[in-house]
TrEMBL record:
GO cellular component, one term: cytosol
Record domain Valyl-tRNA synthetase tRNA-binding arm: where: 890-955
Family matches, as InterPro entries: aa-tRNA-synth_I_CS, aa-tRNA-synth_Ia, Anticodon_Ia_Val, M/V/L/I-tRNA-synth_anticd-bd, Rossmann-like_a/b/a_fold, tRNA-bd_arm, tRNAsynth_Ia_anticodon-bd, Val-tRNA_synth_C_sf
Annotated EC: 6.1.1.9
Name of the protein in question: Valine--tRNA ligase
Quaternary state and interactors: Monomer.
Gene3D superfamilies recorded: HUPs, Isoleucyl-tRNA Synthetase, Domain 1, Valyl-tRNA synthetase, C-terminal domain, Valyl/Leucyl/Isoleucyl-tRNA synthetase, editing domain
Swiss-Prot/TrEMBL domain comment: The C-terminal coiled-coil domain is crucial for aminoacylation activity. ValRS has two distinct active sites: one for aminoacylation and one for editing. The misactivated threonine is translocated from the active site to the editing site.
Span of the annotated motif 'KMSKS' region: 571-575
Amino acid sequence: MIEKTYQPADIEARMSVVWEDSLAFKAGRPDRRDAAPFTIVIPPPNVTGSLHMGHALNNTLQDILCRFERMRGRDVLWQPGTDHAGIATQMVVERQLMERQQPGRREMGREKFLERVWQWKAESGDTIINQLKRLGASCDWSRERFTMDEGLSKAVVKVFVELHRDGLIYKDKRLVNWDTKLLTAISDLEVQQTEVRGSLWYLRYPIEGKTFSPEDPASFIVVATTRPETMLGDTGVAVHPDDERYRKLVGKNIILPLVGRKIKIVADEYSDPEKGSGAVKVTPAHDFNDFEVGNRHGLRRISVLDKEGCLDLLDNEDYLRDLPEGAARFAEEFHNVDRFAARKRIVERLENFGFVERVEPHTHMVPHGDRSNTVIEPYLTDQWYVDAKTLAKPAIAAVRLGDTNFVPKNWEKTYFEWMENIQPWCISRQLWWGHQIPAWYGPDGKVFVAETEEEAVSHALGYYVEQEVITVEQGREMALDRNKREGFITRDEDVLDTWFSSALWPFSTLGWPDHTPEVKRYYPTNVLVTGWDIIFFWVARMMMMGLHFMKEAPFSTVYIHRLVRDEKGAKMSKSKGNVIDPLNLIDEFGADALRFALAREAAHTHDIKLSSQLVEINRNFATKLWNSCRFAEMNDCVVPEGFEPAKAKEPLNRWIAHKTAEATREVTEALEAHSFNDAAGAMYRFVLNVYCDWYVELAKPALGGADGPLRAETRAMVAWARDESLKLLHPFMPFITEELWEVTAKRDGLLALAPWPLKPEGPTPEQLAMLAAAAGPTDPLISPALVMPIFDHADFTDPKAEAEIGWVIDLITQIRSVRAEMNIAPATLTALVLAGASAETKERAPRWTDVIKRMARLSDISFADRSPDGAVQLLVRGEVAALPLKGVVDFAAERTRLDKEITKADADIKRAESKLANEKFVANAAEEVVEEEREKREAALARKAKLLEALERLKQAS
């Protein structure tokens, strides 16, 4: 019995237990052993995280695909798991230690600290997983993985060692994004560009051989900079080769103010003649672009900042080399001064000596750490790198050849741009939590990379014996006694970038490097669902690693979804206070409502604008579905054994079979094309407009009539169409559909394992029946629903039934529209004249007279050769239907009202078009504001079109 009120929370809790107890989502079920596999790997959320709206969208779309393919008979593996999230997790535990006034990481030591992190993971690490279950994610939770599980760690070490052996991992001194608070290199994804109001200083750099004078432009060259403190590390000034102002100066030296170092003027296209003075200082050790300019011209790299962002000048051989006498005193004065304090003091000194030409206010983007919120420094340091350029070549080819396809396809351009301009990938992090780099150093700094410490020790001892650094006897003693080799060989303290381990996710989760059955069956995966922002950080790196180690691309399709924004189109952020918590929406409206809202809005072409009102609309849809199923139950609507919808006789019942077939084809084709919004939109229209609003309403007379063939057939068809709707809706709204299936379908077996309305790929129903018989009736893994004969109604059509019922619906719809346009009160009944009706219309109209009169608020329906005077004419499927409204509607007053409404619509259109034609407005206004104006214009145009149509009808009537 269906409860009177739809209560999502009760249903969700109950259905979660049912699915879990029945092992519904387990990959490799006995009933699927001969089925084609379908694999998706979850983008592993951070173990520190909680469900946000991006997770909700991403996992809803993955779940739709998995439930869809599971119902199509595939052996589905949706591989779940979490990422260890190096920086984020380490910060959580360190903050916890600080709040509890316990010893910090350094005081605790590495071993004890890592024990503490594992303890935190055991206590709190399942939060995000439990939240995904609340969303309805149908992962195989028995296979949950963690990027620092023993098996995955084994894969990480093997990959590092093999890539190092092949020369694809190496150590180098390059610039990295350096967090001066966390004291580690970080990835570009962990850098947020923040708009900052600052200053642009125009500085005079004296030309060698000329007497410097602020009044003599020939004695200096002007450079513009936002970072005067890094000028201490300048080793050149760049000008554009075509800039006539500086052509004669190229190759000459200038004197670095305050420092006195001679630096060269070089010609490089990086300098933009239109910006600033056209000359830029080159600081290769403190700017990524300058690093490349310096490489092109052989300029020195002088690092003047330390790891904490303070000036590092004393004992800095790179800085002190070739300085004139007296410069050391300057180094002593500024040594260990914070970078921003140094900026003020250096600017004061420059002003005192006349080196500042002018200062302008300047707003620019400054990189900040997304966790530390400190300004990120380009920092020159030794790190481990992957030769990404070499690994990228097969990954580029795989997409070009179509082995992997992006949906939408336009994202391939972004992929190619990134991959074809790829830089070495910095994979080392100065953290303790993570995969420690499997590299050990000997006393002279020689590195030994190995899968185990014992292996590294063996290599090191062999090497140093051969080099006669130690004797053979000492080597034997060290090999046997750890104490004797302590300090002789030490392990690299750094850990690997978390993207390194997650790059192996599609195959490490399946047991690689061991040759497991899962690797053979489920790799490569089918679809990856992810956001555009990690195409480079995750997608590209999985492509590189998968192709290198597995010799196949890790997935055939990459579906890129858009962002979820707030209702005004603004990007959600804590600082704006517009973040929408998906768990709050689930609490208020239910997981199904949130999922369906996201799916309906998940278009390829634009971001999602989400609001609680949008989710509420979809909650109302769920309520409508619930009530329609209650109505069917109260009218004893069940599908009798052996019922065949194709053999229905009544036009209305054949019509719903026809419309169900249409919906089935539309939803299936849309899901196959990953057009989630089209699929969800098709189901919204079918359930709400076709099934609830029309079919159930039109079926009420038959359901309420006397017992007989018509009533029996209609009851069966109402129940059948309901069941098919539940199947088609299940991937989108799993909780409510599973509940209604259990209560109303009166069958054994879960809806999650029921067959999709189109015949599934893989084993035939007969083969599945044999499997079920072999397993026995008590086997909980077998769904009897899977072995039921499947009515493949997707090919069913009945144009005649569609024409008849379509005419009824179109007629009622148009009459209702006119009544609304003309402000006719509901209590006022109007007549209808079918003018010049065809024989077909004359034959079908009497069958539907009572229904049309009731639903269209009519007093009478008659036939005539032509439309009477004073009637509004409607064209319904090529025939005229007339509403005599003379005496019912004041035509003159109505015309005046419509004219006013049209004038108002014109004003709204003009206002919006004026803004959109303003180039400054479009260029400077926030994206969501511009989009709002476009929407206003489109709404006003649509409103005007309807008003003009109503006005034209009035003119015809009068």
